[in-house]
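Retro notes, structure queue

What went well: the backlog is down to a handful. What didn't: a couple of records were mislabeled last round, so from now on we paste the full input next to the output in the thread. Example, using BTB/POZ and MATH domain-containing protein 2-like from Stephania cephalantha:
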Amino acid sequence: MGMGRVCGATSKDPKPSSSSVTTSTSLTDTVNGSHQFKITGYSLSKGIGIGKCIASDTFMVGGFEWAIYFYPDGKSVEDNATYVSLFIALASEGTDVRALFELTLLDQSGKEMHKVHSHFGRTLESGPYTLKYRGSMWGYKRFFKRTALEASDFLKDDCLSVHCSIGVVKSRTEGPKLYSITVPSSNIGVHFGRLLESGKGTDVTFEVDGETFSAHKLVLAARSPVFRAQLFGPMKDKNTENIKVEDVGAPAFKALLHFIYWDELPDMEQLTGLNSKWVSTLMAQHLLAAADCYGLERLRLLCEAKLCEGVAINTVATTLALAEQHHCFQLKAVCLKFVSMPENLRAVMQTDGFEYLKESCPSILTELLEYVARVGEHSVIISKHRNEAIFDGSDVNGRRVKQRI
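Corresponding output:
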């Protein structure tokens, strides 16, 4: 009888599949924007009435519209018009909009002693401010005592200047990306720049110091409010195809067109054909004046920054005059500080530019003397305590100390 054998195959239990892990990240940050509000005719606004305001134009930040409200007679009846009030208001529909705010009343003397109230750059115990609905405001009923304001450097030529910054808090959740696409930076300036270089489709020419420049009306109007008024406004020039330019030199006008199309400063050395810091500074001076003339604020600021970096003995006086004439407060402060240095003052006074400064901006000499006097007073204090502190030529505010010449 045959014996049968049963063979049984044994196997281990299958391993459980490894669990998949997914991730996501919640990101909270701010969408920032700012607005400058100029209030002219301040004295005429007094008496408007307590609780009545002067409003800025609305401006967009973080998907919401905002406005600045200035109350010349104050917002509260109980203050009896003793204070002016200043607020930022939510001007569009919104619920529980969270934001950081900054209100700055600009010092117009050039001393940079601005009055600043800011949420930015500091820890807030209760977090960002929340505006519940349209019309909600953040600011100060007692922003400034009126008598003090009217005797201060914040008021100049019956004008106040307010700068407002807003950071709207936004949150979003990001999951893992299933793609990796590199998006190149914008090159719209390159395209417009090449359009200018090609000369195709130009419909306006400018005569500047015997040179002719061709351009496109629509491009100029889109970039400059002055060109827009000149070419398309109700008081536009009679001849909008051939325009003679009197107030800007040919090199500066060429640089102006370069910026309008390319949205960047030209290479000053390449533009002038000269490898000289002095020539570059001179070019930046002329270009700053042209930028102010044609309402190109970004170009004006770029030139101001370039001139701040390139302050020198032989050009600082003309740069200081330019800063005064075109209200470049930071550039003016940098120039005053440079001129007041004991190793610079005598040399600057011997330049032709200083003679031009005296003739064109005599009032700036008073400010310069006051600046030098303040620095000189500080040097006397330092000298009395020479054994108690290390003297490095500057005071605690970074101003250079005037020493005996």
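Agreed that this is the format going forward. Reviewer comment attached to the example: Residues 1-11, 378-405 have pLDDT under 50 and may be disordered.
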